Amino acid sequence: MGKRRGGRELLRGLSKRQKKHLREFGEEHPFHDPVLLLLVLRSCFIFQSENSDKSSVESDSETEVEQVSVYHKLLATLKTSPESESEEEEDESESEEAGESETEMDGEGSQEAEEADGDEEAKNNVPDQEEGTDTADQTLTQKQADGADTSCDPSHGVTEEFTDVKHESEFSLETNFMEEESGDCNADERDSNPFKQHMDKELEEKEVEKMSTLPKTSSQSKWPSLGQLIFSSTLEKHKTLKADKEVDVKQLYLHKPLESTWPKVNKQFLSSVNKPSNPSFTPLQRELFCIMNTYRDLFYPERNALTNGEEIRHAYCLHALNHVLKANAQVLSNNAKRRDQKPGTEKDDYRDQGLTRPKVLMIVPFRECALRIVHILISLLEVNEKRKIDVSNKKRFKGEFGSDPEEKPPNLKRPEDYEAVFAGNIDDHFRIGVAILQKSMRLYAPFYSSDIIIASPLGMRTVIGAEGEKKRDFDFLSSIEILIIDQADIYLMQNWEHVLHLMKHINLLPLDSHGVDFSRVRMMNLNNWSKYYRQTLLFSALQDPQINSVFNKHCFNYVGQVAVRNMPLTGSISHVVVQLPHVFRRLEAESLTSVIDARFQFFIDKVLPEYRDAIMSHTLIYVPSYFDYVRLRNYFKKEDLNFTHICEYTKKAGVCRARRFFLKGEKQFLLFTERFHFYKRYTIKGIRNLIFYELPTYSHFYSEICNMLKATDSAVDATWTCTVLYSKYDAQKLAAVVGIDRTAQMLQSKKYVHLFVTGEN
Fold first, then answer.
1. pLDDT tens per residue, range 449-486
2. CATH class in words for 572-758
3. I need a labelling partner for 385 at 20 to 30 A (CA). Which of 241, 289, 457, 514 fits?
């Protein structure tokens, strides 16, 4: 009886399919025998590793089909029972629903936080992506080291970040040598080569002490295209740089292939207006590259996605690639010299490297920007159509960073600047390493084998991590020589803390040696003086105190800094097309830190009481800061005011409901955040009264919001009002709205200023 009971208990644990197999063959299926399955899988992995050693290097052909590993073939042949299949389907559906809910909560920005009531929401506004994303440090599993791609392996619970390890030896600087035809400048040109002049200068301790203690001396100059420039330096009285009216490509000391490829790549921006003697650069590119090529820091706050954005992108890509090619050529040339030395002779001191290989870090907001940068780099390296460069993992890159035109919803009317900024793939969580060696490019290179790293602030934040985290890495930032931050204004709409976090971890001494040959490391890196040699290129669409602070406090270039400081003569108020009285009310604050509380107190004491009357209905309150929005919303709830609210985290149904209530007059007030307007650009109908709690970050948002009043019935235009709060600390934003002349008058005024603007202004 005991044996029979034991057999019954054994059969109870089997499915119908297993019982049938047991009756027919007298044994269980190998899939359900863990010991036998383990032996089979081990043999498959041994077979796979043997084949991987014999396999050839992966081809980057566009028509290449990925081969299925033996391991996946085995899993495909082992059919699971219907019960287990149903369970797997339930698990997959649950994970998909969880993923959809996460993407909904993430919103369109990088400050992924769920909307909640109270001040606790503002304090705990931490990005969800940081918590839910594994801080990938570009390390690989054993299967990746064997050449298998596990990024899409279903056996893994989490999708792992792909890095290319197959081409490590081909792109290694230590094991390669300079080709004769790809050499750098000759001996006569080395003395005047900007790269050599900048990197070979050895600072003294006295000079470093001066840069850290003494203030900078500045001078001004006016250039034809850039306008007013401010040159600043600490070490010596700055020699004012003059703009070159004509630039010969041969005088720029570009690396050999770039001299011929740059005119072809940049041809799309050149017009018939350009002089025949200067066929390679636009006037803006010529002046920008003239500054870049001297290795000075540069801040250009007039980048426009519609007009000059791509011109600027091409200019800094040329400079970055020229720097990488020259640096790598120097290393490869020295490798050949060391190889050719006779044994027994003393080795010369070849210090030509940093503590880690990455030299250029490009920070861009979206994947589409990274895609365009890589395309520019490829086109700059291809001399002609016959001599195509070898680009590894190109197919994967296009799939992950490209976009499907059909994904864009049709019939969406948005401003031209919106379409330009949010074109293509707008995912803001990415990072990719790029290695360049002579005539080849390697995408998805591990960071410690990369020359250029292209990433978003959020992508860098999840790698760098925070104190206390086990999985964090920032050693690869130790020897960055060129830092490019493009479209810095967009990071104000995402999460500016990520930029500050990056700046705190760049050019620090690494915690590990990472296999570096210390006999080849430059003394500036060994002395921890890398930050004094780093060139920072900062491009933005506007001047903002937070962006200015990064340029002034985190840039230490010994050569000096150049900042473009043009003040607008006419502000965006001239683009308001409706007849509207504008009242600018000044508030007093003792310091920059107290202005937040002073503005709130001024609003609830002097501004809000004027709008509590039912006559002042349909009032939209524009709030740039999310934290101010939370504070106002809590106050409105406490005072039981009739209001509704829309922010960047409000779901679509909540947005539609709030817009409907406000249009019909069922809600008197509408709290409206700037980041929602930045990412959506909806036209809010029913506005009769406008209150700008603070001046907009983007000056053209002022005219856009004011022009929304024309969507309201024109019969009541006589009751339209617009009130703006400002302080003396808002001088830059105020000048962008009303112009520099009116700003000087308004900052002297102690109360408020009335401006009446018609559509003709």
1. 999 999 999 999 999 999 888 889 999 999 999 999 99
2. alpha beta
3. 289
